[in-house]
Amino acid sequence: MEGGFFEGTTIQKADFTVTPLEKGEYEECSFISCDFSASDLSGIIFTDCRFTYCNLSLAGVTMAAFRDVRFIECKMLGIDFSTCNKTGLSFSFEKCMLSNSSFRNIIIKKTSFVNSLLAEADFTECNLSGSLFESCDLTRAVFENTVIEKCDFRTSFNYSIDPEINRIKRAKFSLHGVPGLLQKYNIEIDFDS
């Protein structure tokens, strides 16, 4: 394999826009306050890693592997996750900005999105079965031919999900989220009556 193997390393305040992250495999590593914006992370393997306060906006992730990776308070605008390595793909997001990112046509069952901004994120043909969307803003996020069975949207808001073109069996929604399921019918729902 090209590159090195790094285990249990903590990297803080590194600017990978100036000096790129070394290609290789990173296991149980922590990246804190690092700038990866528009960086090429292609082919790099991240296993049991944690990114905190990092900027990964527009990072290239073609064939990058994310296996049990946690992103906490990261800026991740415009990332095309559909190009990453699908083998063992598993990550979670807490207080992240994921607007305009694409999860198109990937299987990410039981993924946790907590207090995150997912405006205009693309979940077309994605399998999100059993995922949690806790207190997330889903303004103009795209759900089309998406599997959201057993997903929990009860505390999230601003979503528009068409039950006729998505698989939603046993998904959970709050009463205040119902308009997001009926938006295409252009009807008014009065919660005060």
Give a nutshell description of this structure.
This protein has 193 residues and is mostly beta strands.
Structure description:
This protein is mainly β and about 190 residues long. The protein folds into two domains: about 1-95, Pectate Lyase C-like (3 Solenoid), CATH 2.160.20.80; about 100-193, Pectate Lyase C-like. Helix content is about 0%, strand content about 20%. The protein is built from one helix and ten strands; from the N terminus they run ββββββββββα. Strands 1, 2, 3, 4, 5, 6, 7, 8, 9 and 10 form a ten-stranded parallel sheet that branches.
Q: State the CATH class of the largest domain.
A: Mainly Beta
Which consecutive residue ranges, at least 5 long each, have pLDDT under 50? none
Whole-number count of domains: 2
State the helicity in percent bands.
under 10%
CATH architecture of the largest domain: 3 Solenoid
Q: What key phrases describe this protein's structure?
A:
mainly beta, Pectate Lyase C-like, single chain, 193 residues, 1 helix
Topology:
Blueprint: E1 4-7, E2 10-12, E3 24-27, E4 30-32, E5 45-47, E6 50-52, E7 65-72, E8 90-94, E9 112-114, E10 132-134, H1 179-182
Parallel strand pairs: 1-3, 2-4, 3-5, 4-6, 5-7, 6-7, 7-8, 8-9, 9-10
